[in-house]
Design a protein that fits this description.
CATH superfamily: Ferritin, core subunit, four-helix bundle
Distance between the termini: 48 Å
CATH architecture: Up-down Bundle
Shape: globular
Helix content: 55-70%
Number of strands: 0
Length: 284
């Protein structure tokens, strides 16, 4: 049975109130980023394509539904995905073992709370799309999720790069032909950019002295190629299909190019040297 509108709105106010009470001078990090203007580049489709729009419960073309499920498997943030919950557990363990101050540990706790909010949002999307998908465990296949995080700097790069990948994809979903995804895209984009900015804040702290910058420069060689590889192969045969159906606006090469421009500026501002973009890459 569907909940009355007033009950749903009351529940949303409870969530919004909880988020407001969690705000500090730093958290959420997206607040400062967006206060200075739109921080992310526009992702514009430059090819002619038909206009598609599907809502929850609409009959979906077989190819469209298959591509949408493929995208959501890659996303992974679902309450019913055991691998996502395992990743959150690892994040807790890293914070307890490696984070240097109570303040930074609290920031990581706020991050985890927001990721769990996303897990509920994507769970609802999955239930509306295909019931048996909602509880399907989808392990994280990309190697960036399995790189060792042996220091606070490792974890800072993880958040700066990996969460930023989520922000870029969410930016693309703002124009998604699948209405439930389009509706949640702005919130997920905002939060994920904030998580990336949290990682960048940690990196700023780490790079304040020579020792920290040397450490960051050394492990950047591990994280930079993985970050660029997260967008997949430039010649992916599925990219034109995603674009045709309105599930993406640009191909892997274009979103990677824009992402690289963004992260390179931020790395240079830290006083770090940008690595060779082709070195140690697995997906070109």
């Amino acid at each position: 049975m569907a909940k009355p509108d007033h009950q749903a709105m009351s529940e949303m106010r409870v969530i919004e109130d909880a988020e407001q009470r969690g705000r500090t001078d730093l958290w959420p990090f997206w607040r400062k980023a967006y206060a200075q203007g739109d921080p992310l580049p526009r992702l514009e489709c430059k090819v002619s394509r038909p206009v598609h729009r599907f809502d929850e419960g609409d009959p979906l073309p077989e190819e469209y539904k298959g591509l949408l499920l493929k995208m959501l498997r890659h996303e992974g943030e679902r309450a019913g995905n055991k691998s996502f919950l395992g990743l959150m557990g690892t994040c807790l363990e890293i914070a307890e073992a490696l984070f240097p101050t109570p303040e930074t540990k609290l920031l990581k706790a706020e991050y985890l709370a927001e990721e769990l909010k996303h897990a509920i949002m994507f769970h609802r999307l999955a239930v509306g799309l295909q019931h048996d998908f909602a509880l399907r465990d989808v392990p994280y296949a990309h190697y960036s999720f399995h790189l060792p995080r042996e220091s606070w700097a490792d974890d800072a790069f993880f958040h700066f790069f990996v969460d930023l990948n989520g922000a870029f994809h969410s930016r693309d979903w703002r124009e998604s032909s699948y209405v439930p995804l389009q509706k949640m895209a702005a919130t997920v984009e905002r939060d994920e950019l904030g998580h990336s900015e949290m990682g960048y804040y940690f990196l700023t702290e780490i790079c304040q002295d020579r020792r920290g910058r040397i450490l960051a420069q050394r492990i950047l060689a591990k994280w930079y190629p993985a970050a660029l590889d997260m967008f997949g192969r430039s010649d992916s045969p599925n990219a034109p299909k995603f674009i045709h159906w309105g599930l993406k606006s640009v191909d892997n090469a274009e979103i990677r190019r824009l992402y690289k421009e963004y992260v390179d500026r931020k790395l240079v501002a830290l006083g770090l040297d940008v690595p060779d973009e082709r070195k140690n890459r697995r997906f070109l």
